[in-house]
């Protein structure tokens, strides 16, 4: 009789409990995916052991060929999914089945738990339900596993509640065996025809045989391989259906959405390799994780090597999923040897060229491309300043919001629509395109019909400084004091505007008085050629940090408050400015009145920039005084 081993009872991490609740109660209609997820995990386990055995052949002693087996016990109402892959230790079981390691996933689960889209399999598929999908069909799940190279096996068990148990167990061979104790309403998964259908639909592309263990009519055991069991990327494209491509994407990307684009090719020449790459249609949960990891698996002659080859794709293409299979790398290549490997760098060049080329073709269909850009545009733009060699190619793919046009526009579109006399492409950075359209800084541009790019992604503050020109046209900030808008002005319009302005000497007197009273709060006070409606606005001196970037750094605790680097522009045609200018030139109103009005104008300009007044109490006092004076 075998000695009873000590059993540990442990609690699931809080996010796992939330995820289990969502999966069990919100994905009922999609619950057949549990088998796809378990087979996919089993395939990954076999890939990992195959790789480890390249340098430690003893790990595979006695295992035979890799395979995944399905076994039904209708009487016990159990379905078993087993593999002879890498297996798990006690710590692996606790870590892999009891916790969610990535902080981005934890945040996503918390947000999903609070949303009204719990039943959206596409959303949950952003990180994959994986093993936890077992509980959609199971009252209880038992996992028996033994890590390759270890003598000790382990037994993990849970009913999907708040805890699980782990105990030592006699596990005869390396690998993992998952026993699902099916719910009463899940007995359909005890039917062999149902399992065949699911495997054919979702797992036919798995390169490892999926074997159904059954008995014939006389009760004799029999085995049936129910998938194609060949690497999908090695088959001719003409023999692969869109459905097969989609299911392979689901497997390799651990995703639920449909791929927006599929790229399958074989490169021949000095370096030979095959690529099967996918661009998702929805944003992966870890897209903006600090490590910016890419997610393309590397194979050598159909043997899995790693899913963490940093030189396989640049970080700005980290949304791409798929595989690359090369015959020009040694089969026993280590992950360390992959760092800065010249063959890998050449493969990267070919992959990037093909991906950007395909995106250029897809960009011809504006509506389709807009769907891609809205999801991944902010990531692709990182390539403008990170990839000098392909900067022009990425820039041609970039799309932007515009002050004059709905939808997305390219830089080529903007150049084609430039006004007579316009020498620069104008842009403004901020947080919200609709707010930027109404910015006082754009009043003159709107009046003259000059198009301005509305840049609202944080990355825009960085790439814009690495692109001084496009088609020989300089890129200029519309929020800069040197925007050069005068060159575009219509002479008739200019004459009419000039006739309605305060005299130049009065404006100069007011500007001096305002600068004297505001002191270091502003860099300068100047007459504006951009303002047509508002009395004042703040702009950045040419060469200085943009107002938006200054605000971003301040919010991150990396910069001082706004002011010293800003120029306050005043509108000589605004009634308030004209009245103040007349009094300043005549010496009327007193220094205190000018000081109060100057501070109010500065605070007003700050508010229009989305910032609070420097001194809210003093601002409220001055406003009250102005309103009392108006009664």
TrEMBL record:
Alphabetical keyword list: ATP-binding, Chaperone, Cytoplasm, Nucleotide-binding, Stress response
Pfam family, one: HATPase_c_3
Broad class of the protein's primary localization: cytoplasm
Cell location: Cytoplasm
SUPFAM superfamilies: ATPase domain of HSP90 chaperone/DNA topoisomerase II/histidine kinase (SSF55874), HSP90 C-terminal domain (SSF110942), Ribosomal protein S5 domain 2-like (SSF54211)
Location of the region described as A in the Swiss-Prot/TrEMBL record: 1-335
Molecular function GO labels: ATP binding; ATP hydrolysis activity; ATP-dependent protein folding chaperone; unfolded protein binding
Skewed-composition ranges (Basic and acidic residues): 491-503
Renumbered residue ranges of the record's region C: 552-631
Record-linked InterPro entries: HATPase_C_sf (IPR036890), HATPase_dom (IPR003594), HSP90_C (IPR037196), Hsp90_fam (IPR001404), Hsp90_N (IPR020575), Ribosomal_Su5_D2-typ_SF (IPR020568)
Disordered as annotated region, ranges: 481-503
Binding site for ATP: 37, 41, 83, 88, 96, 103-104, 126-131, 176, 335
Record region (B): 336-551
CC per GO annotation: cytoplasm
Residues annotated as domain Histidine kinase/HSP90-like ATPase: 30-186
Alphabetized PANTHER family for the sequence: HEAT SHOCK PROTEIN 90 FAMILY MEMBER
NCBIfam families linked to this entry: PRK05218.1
Subunit field text: Homodimer.
Family membership noted in the UniProt record: Belongs to the heat shock protein 90 family.
Function: Molecular chaperone. Has ATPase activity.
Name this polypeptide is given: Chaperone protein HtpG
Annotated organism of origin: Roseospira visakhapatnamensis
Gene: htpG
């Amino acid at each position: 009789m075998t000695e009873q081993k000590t059993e540990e009872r442990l609690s699931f991490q809080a996010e796992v409990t939330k995820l289990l609740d969502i999966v069990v109660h919100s994905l009922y209609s999609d619950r057949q995916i549990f088998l796809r997820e378990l087979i996919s995990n089993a395939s990954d386990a076999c890939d990992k052991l195959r790789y480890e055995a390249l340098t430690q052949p003893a790990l595979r002693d006695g295992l035979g060929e890799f395979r995944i087996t399905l076994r039904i016990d209708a009487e016990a109402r159990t379905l078993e999914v087993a593999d002879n892959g890498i297996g798990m230790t006690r710590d692996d079981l606790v870590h892999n089945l009891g916790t969610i390691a990535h902080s981005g996933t934890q945040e996503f689960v918390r947000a999903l738990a609070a949303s009204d889209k719990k039943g959206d399999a596409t959303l949950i598929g952003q990180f994959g339900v994986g093993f936890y999908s077992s509980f959609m069909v199971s009252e209880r799940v038992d996992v028996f596993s033994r890590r390759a190279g270890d003598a000790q096996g382990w037994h993990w068990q849970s009913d999907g509640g708040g805890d699980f148990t782990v105990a030592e167990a006699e596990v005869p061979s390396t690998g993992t065996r998952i026993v699902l104790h099916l719910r009463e309403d899940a007995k359909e998964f005890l039917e062999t025809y149902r399992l065949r259908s699911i495997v054919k639909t979702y797992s036919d592309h798995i390169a490892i045989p999926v074997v159904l263990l059954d008995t014939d009519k006389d009760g004799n055991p029999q085995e049936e391989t129910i998938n194609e069991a060949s690497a999908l990327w090695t088959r001719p494209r003409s023999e692969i259906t869109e459905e097969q491509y989609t299911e392979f994407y689901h497997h390799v990307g651990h995703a639920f959405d449909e791929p927006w684009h599929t790229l399958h090719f074989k490169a021949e020449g000095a370096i030979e390799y095959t690529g099967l790459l996918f661009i998702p249609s929805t944003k992966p949960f870890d897209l903006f994780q600090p490590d910016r990891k890419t997610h393309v698996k590397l194979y050598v002659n159909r043997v899995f090597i790693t899913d963490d080859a940093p030189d396989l794709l640049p970080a700005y293409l980290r949304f791409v999923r798929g595989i690359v299979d090369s015959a020009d790398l040694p089969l026993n290549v280590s992950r360390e040897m992959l760092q800065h490997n010249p063959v890998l760098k050449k493969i990267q060049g070919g992959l990037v060229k093909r991906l950007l080329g395909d995106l250029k073709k897809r960009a011809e269909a504006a509506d389709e491309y807009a769907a891609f850009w809205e999801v991944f545009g902010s990531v692709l733009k990182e390539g403008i300043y990170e990839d000098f060699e392909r900067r022009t190619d990425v820039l041609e793919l970039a799309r932007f919001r515009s002050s004059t046009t709905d939808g997305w526009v390219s830089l080529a579109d903007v150049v084609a629509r430039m006004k007579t006399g316009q020498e620069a492409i104008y842009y403004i950075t901020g947080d919200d395109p609709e707010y930027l359209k109404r910015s006082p800084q754009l009043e003159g541009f709107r009046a003259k019909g000059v198009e301005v790019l509305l840049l609202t992604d944080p990355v825009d503050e960085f790439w814009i400084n690495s692109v001084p020109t496009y088609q020989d046209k300089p890129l200029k900030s519309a929020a800069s004091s040197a925007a050069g808008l005068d060159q575009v002005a219509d002479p008739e319009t200019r004459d009419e505007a000039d006739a309605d302005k305060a005299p130049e000497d009065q404006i100069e007197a007011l500007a001096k008085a305002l600068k004297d009273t505001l002191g270091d709060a502003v860099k300068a006070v100047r007459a504006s050629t951009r303002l047509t409606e508002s009395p004042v606005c703040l702009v950045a001196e040419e060469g200085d940090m943009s107002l938006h970037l200054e605000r971003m750094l301040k919010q991150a605790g990396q910069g001082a408050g706004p002011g010293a680097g800003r120029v306050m522009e005043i509108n000589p045609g605004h009634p308030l400015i004209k009245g103040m200018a007349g009094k300043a030139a005549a010496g009327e109103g007193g220094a205190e009145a000018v000081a109060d009005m100057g501070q109010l104008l500065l605070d007003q300009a700050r508010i229009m920039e989305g910032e609070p007044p420097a001194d809210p109490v003093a601002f409220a006092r001055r406003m009250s005084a102005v309103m009392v004076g108006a009664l």
